[in-house]
């Protein structure tokens, strides 16, 4: 069940659902969609991959990081910015 995305500076832990390169006139940026599961339910957030994870991040990894969250018009979806203190908690179990 989708729950409201908390706002403000938060520590998150969740599964990376997708990783995508965004190309703009200002440069290229790697973005990720993360599904966060809490006791109350699930929400998803979209934002820039933290710099220290760029080389290693993959779909299905479980990551932990601190970021500033902002809720979108959809209560179960939001955006994160200024990610810091990022780490991969659990590597992907999917074999290639």
Number of folding domains?
Answer: 1
Helix content: under 10%
* Total beta strand runs: 5
Radius of gyration, in Å, reads: 13 Å
Structure description:
By secondary structure, this protein is mostly beta strands. It has a single domain (8-88), classed as Nucleic acid-binding proteins (OB fold (Dihydrolipoamide Acetyltransferase, E2P)), CATH 2.40.50. 0% of the residues lie in helices and 61% in strands. It has no helices and five strands. The protein has strands at 8-24, 27-37, 42-48, 62-71, 77-90. Strands 1-2-3-5-4 form a five-stranded mixed beta barrel. The chain starts with 7 loop residues before the first strand and ends in a 6-residue tail after the last strand. The mean pLDDT is 93.
Secondary structure: elements and pairs:
Blueprint: E1 8-24, E2 27-37, E3 42-48, E4 62-71, E5 77-90
Parallel strand pairs: 3-5
Antiparallel strand pairs: 1-2, 1-4, 2-3, 4-5
List keywords for this structure.
single chain, about 100 residues, mainly beta, OB fold (Dihydrolipoamide Acetyltransferase, E2P), 5-stranded mixed barrel, 5 strands, about 0% helix, globular
In short:
With 96 residues, this protein is mostly beta strands. The protein has strands at residues 8-24, 27-37, 42-48, 62-71, 77-90.
């Amino acid at each position: 069940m989708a729950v409201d995305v908390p706002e403000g500076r938060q520590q998150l832990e969740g599964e990376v659902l997708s990783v995508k390169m965004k190309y703009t006139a200002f440069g290229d940026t790697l973005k990720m969609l993360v599904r966060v599961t809490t006791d109350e339910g699930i929400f998803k957030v979209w934002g820039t991959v933290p710099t220290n994870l760029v080389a290693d991040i993959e779909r299905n990894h479980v990551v932990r990081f601190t970021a500033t969250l902002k809720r979108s018009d959809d209560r179960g979806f939001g955006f994160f910015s200024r990610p810091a203190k990022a780490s991969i908690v659990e590597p992907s179990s999917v074999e290639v």
